[in-house]
Amino acid sequence: MLKDKNVILGVTGGIAAYKSVEIASRLRKAGASVHVIMTAGAQNFVTSMTFREITGNPVITTMWGEITNHQVEHIALAELADLMIIAPATANFIAKAAAGMADDMLTTTVLATKVPIFFAPAMNSNMYNNQLTQANIKRLVELGWRFIPPASGHLACGTDGIGRLPEPAEILDFVENELSHEEDFIGKKLLVTAAGTYEPIDPVRYIGNRSSGKMGYAIAEAAKKRGAEVTLVSGPSALTAPAGVKLVRVETAAQMRQAVLEFFDEADIIIKAAAVADYRVREVADQKIKKNDDELVLVLEKNPDILFELGQKKKSGQILVGFAAETQHLLEYAKAKLEKKNLDMIVANDVSRKDAGFNVDTNAVKLLYRDGTVQELPVMTKYKLANELLNMVIKL
Ligand code: C5P
């Protein structure tokens, strides 16, 4: 993946800068030509000489000195590059990038380049979790810049928490993984559903569930990045739709059914990650129900099973994927659903686990296929899982 690529490695002023030496070394071993740009802060932690020896290329440390290497002038390097990695990326650097500043060689190059940029933030947990840093990251992500999530553990400042620079090998894996499935969904139309549904009781109350929408939104985002034309039909969720994705907001299962049927025919791939309510209130009150009686009985009636209906309508060439959230008998129930709903793949997750299922950022699932194979995936972030699912979908 990285062979013969021109990679700009931006190093900013954090203690984790020493790990960038290994990143540079690994990039070179992978066949890349590495061009290091150091901020002034970074030079307090590592010397440019180290990078020069490791990369075999001149290292840029200032915008103002004599240009020693003819072409290595800021715009030239920005244009020569295939990819940029900023590791470690300090809170300060992220803030400057988000503000569009260009007051040194690294910020200038970041602004001038059009190639994919990967940020590997590393800093104190409080700085990382600070709303300003998070807002800056969000802004850059929305603009298509990629963030390699920091690891948790012991930090140089003496505390434990999130903010560690991931190991160099993991950083390279992340970058290669992202680049390897770049654009493999071009020309594909993907319909994904996310979040739970709200089934009204009266004008102010509803029956809902704990689904956050994180899994479905992650699938939409990953598919969009890989070139798909994505329609996201979402129940109520606090999340914002990934850039470039067509978002259709619904509330009830009936509305979700209608929206899904509208886009079903043209979709090549349909992934139903929504937690659709199985029942709705038979008679929704016109006015707010008053608390007069000791007991209130609501009669529920069955909602349409959207996925079952899609399974019946499925044409050859369409790939239909469902989710099965269970608290017991996971494989048995999931297998039954795969067959009953005529799916190509079902993603079974045990929602009784703490690190999987509703409202958390990670998931641990088993994938079941029509031929009876079962594939168990380790715990991973929902975004990583989204990419794994898409890898399987492409194979199907
Ligand atoms: O049968 P169960 O609800 O457990 O199946 C889960 C799968 O079916 C999910 O993919 C979910 O999105 C879908 N589903 C649906 N319509 C329903 C209930 C579930 O499409 N009414």
Structure, explained:
Helix 1 (17-29) crosses helix 8 (168-180) and helix 3 packs across helix 5 (105-112). The chain has 2 domains: 6-180, Flavin prenyltransferase-like (Rossmann fold), CATH 3.40.50; 189-395, 3-Layer(aba) Sandwich (Rossmann fold), CATH 3.40.50. The longest helix is centred in the last third of the chain and has 14 residues, at 382-395. The mean pLDDT is 92. It starts with 5 loop residues before the first strand and ends with a helix. Helices cover 33% and strands 23% of the residues. Strand 9 and strand 10 (206-207) form a beta hairpin. It is α/β, with parallel strands linked by helices and 396 residues long. Cytidine-5'-monophosphate (C5P) binds next to helix 11 and strand 16.
Alpha-beta content class: alpha/beta
Helical content, roughly? Answer: 25-40%
Summed over residues and divided by their number, the pLDDT gives a mean of 92
User: How far apart, in Å, are the first and last alpha carbons?
Assistant: 24 Å
Describe the strand arrangement of the main beta sheet, using strand numbers: 12-11-8-13-16-17-19-20
- Strand content bin: 15-25%
At the first level of CATH, the class of the largest domain is Alpha Beta
* Ions and ligands: cytidine-5'-monophosphate
**CATH superfamily grouping of the largest domain:** CoaB-like
